[in-house]
Amino acid sequence: MKKHLETAKAFNLKELITYSDGSTVSKILSKNSNGNTTLFAFDKEQELSEHTAPFDATAIIIDGKCEITIKDEKYELKEGEMIIMPANVPHALTAPEPFKMLLIMIKE
């Protein structure tokens, strides 16, 4: 696993990952001991069941709409919006329509 990029690289996030019928696709863009950046594409009606993470997680919606539940409070996010899911707080994601998101987790 590389700790640092050797050269800069520009990405078009929407084009970097594609939807797959009836499933969720993920692609790790960067990962090291300090955290990770992962791109997701959720098809309609896919979900990520309730769980917790040991670090704050930032979700940036880059296509479509999603519903995120954080500690029993629902949020509907659309393209261009983001939310920070606090560490150790239960959260879940559902896809009322296909959506793509960038998830950033940085360890303390």
UniProtKB/TrEMBL annotation:
Residues 43-104 form the Cupin type-2 domain. InterPro entries: Cupin_2 (IPR013096), RmlC-like_jellyroll (IPR014710), RmlC_Cupin_sf (IPR011051). This is Cupin domain protein. The lineage of its organism: Bacteria, Pseudomonadati, Bacteroidota, Flavobacteriia, Flavobacteriales.
